[in-house]
């Protein structure tokens, strides 16, 4: 799981420990900087400093109780410094699933205008195994709501200058494409370019559509009626629906405000 590198936006890749140790992959993707997030014991016994590349190491376990948010600022400065110099950063943990994805999401929140929900969908569209644990997701939610995102963005751009419009467009285009890929997966069960499930061809799937609605012929249509996608979050070892999890994490005043807005 997570053995290879996944390009998220220009200059940012996410992967696991195996990718960080692969000179072939590092050279193929022109990686100049490495952001490592690993714990102190078994993982570090398999890790070693990669020569000829600038590195930063954050020691953290993949545990919901671990505070990754304390690393957000240093990580953002390290990642952005590399991109300003036209470098490429590999952000990695053990498998490229939780810790590295959390750091990546924090950086993207700072340098783009996308919401956390949109960015989470985009990162999953680019790296399908991306799945921060519920504690890290809570830290990202707190980061978004607290105003720290805007403060860190101001500090980042104050040091390095505003992100050029052309670079912003490249980031936006990459994230938008990844969001569309993930939405396609949610609707159809496959990503664009993948073979439909059960060997069904796109034409057969179109024929099975009971409503006969016109869809993009280049994309496989769903078989029969679309099923509602249910996401389950395991919080404190208890399975909950995504809606229940978010509601349990929202302060009472936020819930009241949302109800009034409706």
TrEMBL record:
Organism (species): Opisthorchis viverrini
InterPro entries: Dual-sp_phosphatase_cat-dom (IPR000340), Prot-tyrosine_phosphatase-like (IPR029021), Tyr_Pase_dom (IPR000387), TYR_PHOSPHATASE_DUAL_dom (IPR020422)
Stated name of the protein: Dual specificity phosphatase, catalytic domain protein
Residues making up the signal peptide according to the UniProt record: none
Family of the protein in this entry: Belongs to the protein-tyrosine phosphatase family. Non-receptor class dual specificity subfamily.
Domain of life: Eukaryota
Biological process according to GO: signal transduction
Keyword Hydrolase: yes
Span list, region Disordered: 198-221
